[in-house]
Design a protein that fits this description.
This protein has a four-stranded mixed β-sheet with strand order 4-7-6-5, covered by helices on one side. A three-stranded antiparallel β-sheet has the order 1-2-3, with no helix packed on it. The protein has about 120 residues and is mainly β. The model has no long low-confidence stretch (mean pLDDT about 90). The chain has one helix and seven strands, in the order ββββαβββ.
């Protein structure tokens, strides 16, 4: 949805140093230990946490894009399989701003970058 490029991905089983006993669940060998994604000129780093559960609560990711058309495109792509919290439209602070919860339950705020 964001045009991200996977720069690097390493699973726990690919680590050059074995994990200490009990550090991760036994069935986590294929989970992501480290990953780097490029979105435009930004780098995002991520990993699978060692906690149980999959809730994303109490935060939103904010993405500033270069145009209203790009905000509309990304907003629609993130909403596919998710839900729109606020349609992408002009606001007093941005030519185009919208909010969406993606299919994984992650809340996004998408806006036109302003000087």
């Amino acid at each position: 949805a964001l045009g991200a490029e996977l720069v690097m991905r390493m699973s726990y089983s690919e680590s050059p140093q074995p994990m200490p006993p009990g550090a991760i669940p036994a069935d986590w060998s294929d989970k992501v230990m480290n990953a780097t994604l490029r979105i435009g000129s930004a780098l995002i780093m991520a990993s699978d946490g060692c906690e149980a559960g999959t809730k994303f609560e109490g935060f939103s990711l904010s993405l500033a894009l270069s145009s209203a058309a790009e905000v509309q495109r990304v907003h629609a792509a993130l909403a596919d399989g998710g839900r729109v919290s606020m349609p992408a439209a002009e606001t007093f602070w941005s030519p185009c701003f919208g909010m969406v919860v993606d299919r994984f339950g992650v809340s996004w705020m998408v806006t036109v970058a302003t000087p």
